[in-house]
Amino acid sequence: MSVDTPDLSLADVHEAIGATRPDQECLVFRDRRLTWADVQDRTRRLANHLIAQGHGCHTERSELDGHESGQDHLAIYLHNGNEYLEVMLGALKARVASLNVNYRYVAEELRYLLADSGATAVVVHSAFAPTLAEVLDDDTTIRTILQVRDESGNDLLPGAVWYEDALEQASPERPGVMWSPDDLYMLYTGGTTGMPKGVMWRNGDAMRACFGGSPTATTVDEFVAEANTGLRALIGPPFMHGAGHWIAFRTWLGGGTVFVPSVPERLDPDDVWSMIERERLDFLLIVGDAFARPLLDELDSTSEQRDLSSLAVILSGGAALSAPLKEEFLAHMPTLMVIDGLGSSEAGGQVSHVSAGGTASTGTFEMTPGNVVLSADLDAVLEPGSEEAGWLAKTGRLALGYLGDPDKTARTYPVVDGIRYAVPGDRARLLDDGAGGLGIIELHGRDSVTINSGGEKIFAEEVEAALKAHPSIYDCVVAGRPSERWGSEVVAVVRLRPGHTATDEELLGEAERHIARYKLPKAIIYVDEVVRSPSGKADYRWARSVATG
Distance between CA atoms of 23 and 28, rounded to whole angstroms? Predict the structure, then answer.
């Protein structure tokens, strides 16, 4: 760790905040309105159940390399609900590392994830029990299964225990282990451009770098003193996406209340807006255009006037939110603040961009301390105004690395001039802001989805943003396909808005206003639906298959 702020455990901090407001609401899902005392009780019971099953920490962090774990791992195979966050916090209190599971995985993908993570426990919604049953064979490392009842009505898996029964039978006392800031918060990447990998964070670092905990608090009491935001936050995306974890725990670290949509299986715009109106919520987390467009369509389609005056902030994390959609939000709610949050599983939160007062833009961010742009060869820190396109990087509190993969860990966390950086793969230029500041980041997009066409690097996300400026486009993903002339060529996979029409020439004409002609798609393929992950992120493997099909 390369920072001077003392280490604190997330479990200790959460319990200390809860002790100051035991009867206030902490977590709300459907008819469950859990107080801070309720959440403490339920997470302690879960921790004690796991400890009784032999799960915990078996090798301390000081004896391990960055890509190694000395803890048992618990796979969270759930839809959103109060149980998801309870499991994350309860596992931490048992010194067990939880990890997120993409609930859309088929059996083969699930088998890979459980094997790669070495998970020894799983908490699963009954709806997913049949898929889990397919992979529970002699090779599995799973030895504890807790099953959460749901509307599917599926039977209890052999050897499993109902989640609520396990909690009811466990002790509510503080678990008899010493909570440590070294214990892991593990986040599996989405795998939309490659195989999922487990990014490992010390929870003491994640609490500040991912969850927005106080960067200056040196004691638990100081953390408690700063827990005064009173935020009432609605988490739109699935918790299997890191942004959901981050904002939920950020809300708790501010002493606020986390709300979970009543319809967790999919985005239900009416449910989202109704909850904001009914509960007087002030913060909404979404993931880019895939969430924004249906939410805006709902506002446009109803003649009923909703009272959304309580909503102060919409934060988009995990995917870009295009400027035209920001402008639509601001037209509906002129006092709203729309924030693009840029971060990654490997680096935590990095930079942000705020749109307010009726003006909106996208693609640029103010540089902040701890973030830099490294040269293309990863051998120097670029100065503001440099013409070179480099890599957005971060130093300070960073993840330890990728579980079981020392080579990928070394590539993603290079040491430059004696300083360790996280380089998640975002290409960027550092512009001079002309005001004596740290500069402006011009974000180009992930290198993993960069298209090399005729010797020029074309960033998929830049082309997507240019096309989405056309009002007829509902959604768009850009991919490359082989080309005899160019090596690779740009292809746009487009879904038009219902009732709208547009020709290729019209879409290209709009895009040409925003990007150079050589970046324009060589072909446009129209589809009824653009496939994305449950979190709203683009599935570039699917897009490439459509482009080359």
Answer: 13
